[in-house]
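Notes on consecutive records. When two proteins share a document, each keeps its own sequence and its own token line. Never mix them. Below: protein one.
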Amino acid sequence: MLKVGLTGGIGSGKTLVSRVFESLGVPVFNADNESKKIINTDKKIISALKSEFGDEIYTSDGINRQKFAGIIFNDVNALTQVNKIIHPRVREYFLLWAKSKKAVYVIEEAAILFESKANLEMDLTINVHADELLRINRVTQRDNITKQLVLQRIRNQFSDEERINLADFTIFNNENSMIIPQILETHNKILNHI
């Protein structure tokens, strides 16, 4: 079974592309959703985050999302530390999940696939690209946050050029791009790669 990583900048449309792959019968593991889950359920992760950032990073309902985002998106060292704590655990979950699947290939959707070096464990990688202005508009509307906050998050990720250069395939998700034919073509190329 091939392991395929799918990434792209914030607001590029990774989840939309993942859903199309799922409709083709490809199992998709969403690393970002898994991260959000284990932050609130994995005792080792909770302990490590409290140790790093203080007990007040958690409330009785789980992680204080606003406080947590304020820390990691304003401090590169804090973001690096969080990634060191969370991503090895997400890798373990992904590998266990992948072993349980009966498929020709599986996809791991991850916002920071290249930044976390998870791409090194993949057989192939797909990048979803959208122009920065379009991404900013999508995220400000989707998450109801300011342009400045979106730009902060963009700066914490690899540039579009870096992702395009590192990926085996790039799917362009701009308003004038037809993504279904690109996804089908990529799907067929992956099947032929086997």
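Protein two starts on the next line and is unrelated to protein one.
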Amino acid sequence: MSTLDDLWSVVTSIPRGRVSSYGDVGRALDRPVSGVLVGKWMTQSPPSVPWWRVVGRNGDLLVAKRGPEFAAQQRDLLEQEGVTFVDGQVERKFFLVP
């Protein structure tokens, strides 16, 4: 399995209504990588991968760095799954425990 296939598998395994951080996703790979690298790779995410379930370690929507429209879309998708926010960050109770 390629590293990207492994990444897509890990991200796809995040249940609906839950999130994981870039760093936690990177550590869950067969060949662990940094959260920064996960973030770069996530820009190539196929449409079938729930990219919106990956957030910053503090619950920040880091896709806002690419454009505010991405953060708005991510927040909307997460809210549709029942995820709530406090002060613009995903509430901790929605994080998967590694």
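For the record: The domain at 3-92 is CATH 1.10.10.10 (Arc Repressor Mutant, subunit A).
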